Amino acid sequence: MQQEKGFNSMIRSNKKAQEEIVGFVLIVVIVSIIFMVFLGIFLRQQPSELQQESREVYQFLESSMEYTTICAVSYEPDFSKLGELIRECYSGSVCTSGKKACIVLNQTLTEILDSSWKVGPERAVKGYVFNSTYDTNTTQEVLVTIVRGECSFNRKGAEYLIPAFPGTIISSFDLCY
Amino acid sequence: MNFYLANYSKGQMKIQQMAFVLVALMIFFALVSLFYFSIRVSNLEKGVVELREDEAKELVRKLAASPEFAWTATDCASCIDLDKVILLKNRKAYSGFWNLDYLAVERVYPSKQGECSKGSYPNCNSITIINKTGAFGTPAWSYVALCRHEFSKSNYVRCELGRIFAAGKGIQ
User: Fold this and answer.
1) What is the sign, positive or negative, of the torsion defined by CA atoms of B40, B45, B51, B53?
2) Between residues 88 and 147 of chain B, which touch chain A (CB distance below 8 Å)?
3) Model confidence over B60-72: pLDDT tens digits?
4) Which domain holds residue A39?
């Protein structure tokens, strides 16, 4: 009789422990669901941070494309603007000085970027990526790529389009933070 | 009697336990929401600062597109006429025209040295049009193309990369 009593109380305390565990698990599950909902809302608002459009960069691209280079393709002093030089580079043109348009483009662009954007691990801007590609609906050809410093996920940039029939030259510039 | 007392204290314990769990949960949610809102507010503040900066840049850009600065020879939205700017430099009539404390144009590439005067132009770096007070804070700036007529080799239009700076009530 006493043994039976002990057995019953053991079963009762086991049941109680199980109930406590179920309650605890329930609380943990509810808390984690609420936490996930918070995280979901927070992350949904964040992605734009990773790749933001920057007016500053667009203004830089727009102004740089007007820069008068030292390359004249037809005659001097009809020097090409930087935007035109990208197009000439795609066409494989040669300047009146004998230099290839692509070489002058690379040199000029590197100098412009270096004097406009100071990058480094101790600076606000850690690095940058300049990319110019000729894009049609079917093909994509890289014309220039200039990379400086370190680029992680946090970027701000802009694109500048130059029509070049039958496609478009897309120049993109990203600042990395 | 003892049985009732035992059950009563057990019940009290249960209520206490539940109360502790509820309090702990409340504290937990309060901390989580505090953390969440602090991040949201800091992002919002950052966003406001960025928007204000962008707006100031746009206003500076709009200023660069005004007839006093604009390069009208070709269709170019980002170009300013550097020959006009050097002429504006010593015009006293324009000092109150834009309601600004500071207005300047600086060459970025190719970089040169010194403030421009009629004698040193165009082999100089910057042109300060307005500088009313030294305490105008950090000026807003925007990239522009600085265009002018070049006569050194032969007459052609030469555009270089520069920045226009402005500070004061006119751009706030």
Assistant:
1) negative
2) 108-111, 142-145, 147
3) 888 888 888 999 8
4) 2-45
Q: Which of residues 8-47 of B touch A (CB under 8 A)?
A: 21, 25, 28-29, 32-33, 36, 39-40, 43
C-beta atoms of B109 and A77 within 8 A: no
**Do residue B58 and residue A55 have CB atoms under 8 angstroms apart?**
yes
Question: How many Å lie between the alpha carbon of B94 and the closest alpha carbon of chain A?
Answer: 26
Rounded-to-integer distance, Cα A6 and Cα A100, Å = 97
Helix and strand counts by DSSP (H, E) for chain A = 5, 7
- Phi and psi at residue B89, to the nearest 5°: -50, -45
Q: What is the pLDDT of residues B19-56, one digit of tens each?
A: 888 898 889 889 988 988 898 888 888 888 888 887 88
Amino acid at A46: Q
| CATH number of domain containing A161 | 3.30.1140
Helix (H) or strand (E) run with residue A56 in it: helix A55-64
Gap between the Cα atoms of A53 and A56, Å rounded: 9
Residues A112 and A145 in one domain: yes
* A60 and A27 belong to one structural domain: no
Q: What residues make up the domain containing B55?
A: 1-172
Q: Are residues A35 and A69 in the same domain?
A: no
- Gap from B93 CA to chain A (nearest CA, Å): 29
Amino acid occupying residue A37: V
Same domain, A57 and A90: yes
**A34 and A56 assigned to the same domain:** no
Task: Enumerate the residues of chain B whose CB falls inside 8 A of the CB of residue A45.
Answer: 43
Please tell me whether residues A105 and A136 are part of one structural domain: yes
Instruction: Tell me the residue ranges of DSSP E strands in B1-89.
Output: 79-81
Residue with tokens 């165009």: B122
Look up the ipTM and state it. 0.74
The tally of domains found in chain A comes to 2
A83 and A158 in a single domain? The answer is yes
Q: Which helix H or strand E contains A26, and what residues bound it?
A: helix A2-45
